[in-house]
Specification:
single chain; mainly alpha; 0% strand
Length: 347
Amino acid sequence: MQSEHPTIEPRRVRLAQQRQKESRPAPVEEAPSSKELRALYADHTEYLRHGTIGGVLKTRYADADLTLEAFEELVDLLENRGAVAWQVRAAAAWLLGQVRLSEGQKHRVSKALCVLLRERKSGMGVRWQKRVGYAALPSVALLGLGGVFALVLGRMTALPQGQMVGQAALFFSTLIGLGMLGVRWHNIVTQQRDVVLASLRTLCKFALPDSLPILFDTFTDTDTYKVSEKALLATLPKLETSQYGRIEPTLIAEMCNLLTDCTPWHPPLMIALVEALERVGTKEAIRPVQKVMSHVDRGSFPQFEVLSEAVERTLEILRARAEIEEELEAQERQYHLDPYAVIREEG
């Protein structure tokens, strides 16, 4: 009986792989046009804004392969931002998170999305004149038509009724114009926010450590911090011990700042940050990690035991690293004071 297991198990694996291959969507030969991307944006707006699953598994792009030409066309919509509509950009960012990409392609898309998110408060490459023109020009045109109609009506008749109609036309055109201005400006803000949300959801799926700086930045935004937290929870565990000493000190500082700022309202994020500092933290992380426990009330913190164990384990590792780092710093200072000291000692 035992001799059958090595034969049965590979067969099951092969069958599972065959079913997965058969259920995979056909490769996408051509990137969707702008019109198709607008339709895709309209169909999946609920997912972009609220993260619901509806419609995602039904799309033909879920887990599909892209040809190189289709990939280049989609990435170009993110990298060449000025002439691309926000709905198209949001759909492209979302779609690139649904298809199958190589690691190199993920890094390129992640870099483009990080640039977009960095420019989220300045129009994402779209000049303010264009944004104001999109919102204001129809309103100004409507106000102009209302004014011309009132002027013509007042010149054509001297009757009080004609003047009253002209004044009413001017009033209602002004009212409708201001309403149109508000609606179109709201559309700009909403569509820009959808680009941010679509970018964050794709970065969450990629979970690349290179995106951590922008995720820390977007976590401070009140309307995107939930999606940013989800992306951080997916990305922080990707930091490995082998990266210790090769990460920018500013990133360690941002992790420490977020750790002290988010206590105690985000228990999973606190634990993820402490465990990340356990792997890549330097001696500068000792004091922030120590402060964590002082901000946490054991009676109200739902994962106190897990956090306490993580803090103790992290502090032990960070203190050991601190001794090594201080010894290396002392050697470096000594070298700068007397560069030939090492040669004399070896001699």
